[in-house]
Design goal:
Elements (H helix, E strand, L loop, with lengths): L14 H12 L3 H10 L1 E2 L7 E7 L9 H4 L2 E7 L2 E8 L5 E3 L7 H6 L8 H12 L6 E8 L2 E8 L5 E8 L2 E7 L7 E7 L4
Antiparallel strand pairs: 1-8, 2-3, 2-10, 3-4, 4-5, 4-6, 6-7, 7-8, 8-9, 9-10
Length: about 190
C-alpha cells in the first residue's frame, strides 16, 4: 500500500505580498509605499540579475498611468548593467529604450499619456528610441540609513532603489528631481525561457 500524500495548504501571502496585491488593485500613496519600503529587507545587486516584469503602482504620482499607457514591460539586468526601460515592441516582443532620449519630464508636465492618440504617436517614434546598450548601472548604495541595491540611470539624475517583498518580487522607488516624491513600482522576476 502506498503512503497517502498530504495535500499541503497554500501558504498565506506574506504581509508585504498582501500589501502589494492590495496596492495593485486599489492603489496606494507614495508615502505609504515609502513606509512599506522601510519595513522590507535590502537587496544585493547580484540578486537583481535577470529579466523583470514591471508592476506599476498607482500612488497618486505624476507618473501614474504613463508607463503602462505606453507599454512598459520591466527591466533586464546582467553583470551590473541594466536596460532600465523595456517596452512592448508592438509585435508581441519587447525592446529596450534609450532613456536619455525620452522626454519624461516634458511628457509628465504636459500629461501626454492622457492625450488621445498618444499611444499611436509613441508607437511611431518608438523604433527611433531603441538601444542595444545598457543604460543604467546596478550597485549597492545607502538609502535612508540602509545599504541596498540601486539602479543609477546613466546621464540622467534618476535612481531606483529596491527592497525585497519576497523571493521573486522587489519593491522599487524611483527618485528623480522633477518630482517631490518617489514613484513606486514593483518588479517580479520573469520565468527563465
Amino acid at each position: 500500500m502506498l503512503p497517502q500524500v498530504q495535500a499541503s495548504e497554500p501558504r498565506p501571502p506574506s504581509e508585504a505580498r498582501a500589501w502589494l496585491e492590495t496596492a495593485r488593485r486599489t492603489g496606494t500613496t507614495s508615502a505609504d509605499a515609502q513606509a512599506r519600503f522601510g519595513t522590507l529587507a535590502p537587496v544585493a545587486p547580484a540578486e537583481l540579475h535577470g529579466r523583470w516584469h514591471g508592476i506599476p503602482l498607482h500612488c497618486r504620482h505624476p507618473l501614474d498611468g504613463l508607463l503602462e499607457r505606453f507599454g512598459w514591460r520591466g527591466k533586464a539586468i546582467a553583470g551590473g548593467r541594466a536596460h532600465a526601460l523595456l517596452f512592448a515592441d508592438g509585435r508581441g516582443g519587447e525592446v529596450a529604450l534609450d532613456v536619455r532620449r525620452l522626454p519624461v519630464g516634458l511628457a509628465v508636465r504636459l500629461r501626454a499619456h492622457r492625450w488621445p492618440g498618444a499611444r499611436v504617436a509613441f508607437a511611431l517614434v518608438r523604433a527611433s528610441l531603441v538601444t542595444h546598450w545598457p543604460n543604467a548601472r546596478v550597485r549597492s548604495a545607502e538609502h535612508r540609513g540602509r545599504v541596498t541595491a540601486v539602479l543609477d540611470y546613466e546621464d540622467l539624475p534618476i535612481r531606483d532603489v529596491f527592497a525585497r517583498i519576497d523571493e521573486t518580487t522587489v519593491l522599487g522607488l524611483m527618485h528623480a528631481p522633477w518630482f517631490d516624491a518617489p514613484y513606486a513600482f514593483a518588479l517580479e522576476r520573469a520565468p527563465h525561457p
